[in-house]
Amino acid sequence: xxxxxxxxxxxxxxxxxxxxxxxxxxxxxxxxxxxxxxxxxxxxxxxxxxxxxxxxxxxxxxxxxxxxxxxxxxxxxxxxxxxxxxxx
Length: 88
Known about the structure:
It is a single chain. This protein has helices at 3-32, 35-46, 67-87. The protein is an all-alpha fold. It has 2 domains: 1-32; 34-88. α2 runs antiparallel to α3 (67-87).
């Protein structure tokens, strides 16, 4: 099987598993919370967005990825994570 197909299947099954977990466990709890608590829980998830800084590490991504894209993603994720932490 071609590597692209394996990657696509892997990604699709990963998204499906996360969607099922969220639909079963996360969404019902968020709906039961008041609005402020639910927003705090969502901000907590987003506080881990600083991992996008890894795009700036040499060898982390392929050489075909444009550096301008990697920089935008890295600092965008950092800003999102910091804002989420400040919101907590």
